[in-house]
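User: Run a structure prediction on this.
Assistant: Running it now.
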Amino acid sequence: MGDFRQLKAWQEAKRLATLSRDLVRFLPPDEAFALGAQWRRVAYSVALNIAEGAAQSSTRQFRRYLQIAKGSLDELEGVLELAEGYLSPAKLKEVRLARTHCARLLTALARSLSNASPHNASPDNAPSGNAPSDNASPPLIGRSPPTAVEAPPPAPARSEPPLT
């Protein structure tokens, strides 16, 4: 699919992991092993799922890993809620902003991959530049878009890859 390091979503996820790692050090000792370890795992999971997804052989598989990364971002929000009693709002603000930005980038990347699929490809919805450049599918050639009378072609059956 391409080099994950070039993806803006991965770059922001890496920044989020670094910010999180730095803030975990401010947790009280009795939370460093429970909340702190979970915080690190979930923050690292976002970046690592983007990297692993980019290495997959299909855009469908890549999108699945992006969904897992989004789930990790949701879990991170829960961790940040729990950390509120231990860290000041000022310290949590930057990591919350990075989390929100990363979520937006993940959504845009997943959308660009969906738009690049053969059933959605057209010059109007080409990838936004956040997707790997070698992943873009060519537009459908020799076929006009469906009209109000004509129904779009049925979507292929989907099967989810096993969770690892």
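The CA atoms of residues 109 and 120 lie 15 Å apart.
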